[in-house]
Amino acid sequence: MDILQSIRNDVRAEKLCSTPNKNHIQRCQTILDNLDSLNFVKFVNTGSIMTIESIKDRYPHRKFKKDVKTVCRYVGGFCIEFVGKDKFSWNYHEDVDFKHVEMTLFNHVKNAIDEQ
Predict the structure, then answer these.
(1) 105: nearest Cα among 86, 116, 84, 90
(2) CB–CB of 43/74 below 8 Å?
(3) Phi-psi map region of 18: left, alpha, beta (phi>0 left; psi -120 to 50 alpha)
């Protein structure tokens, strides 16, 4: 996975949506400029809770689980889905502990950066 391209695609999606978030674009640009220094705190600080409608405005072809109404989106367009009443999901990892899912996502991103 090319993290640089994921972040660039995220910036592009944000710029093209109906209500662009300039703060998100700036955070993405800052991270692109300093990708090697990305740590858990910096990554988590890019998180933004969004409705499923808002995220689909940016990523219309992305598939989500049926009962997802809210996500937390991070730099690169990565999302943790809020599933049902008390579960959180990213990719293959589902848990009741949001921070655990967030750490799993960050480790995935950091590993992809290290492989570049």
Answers:
(1) 90
(2) yes
(3) alpha
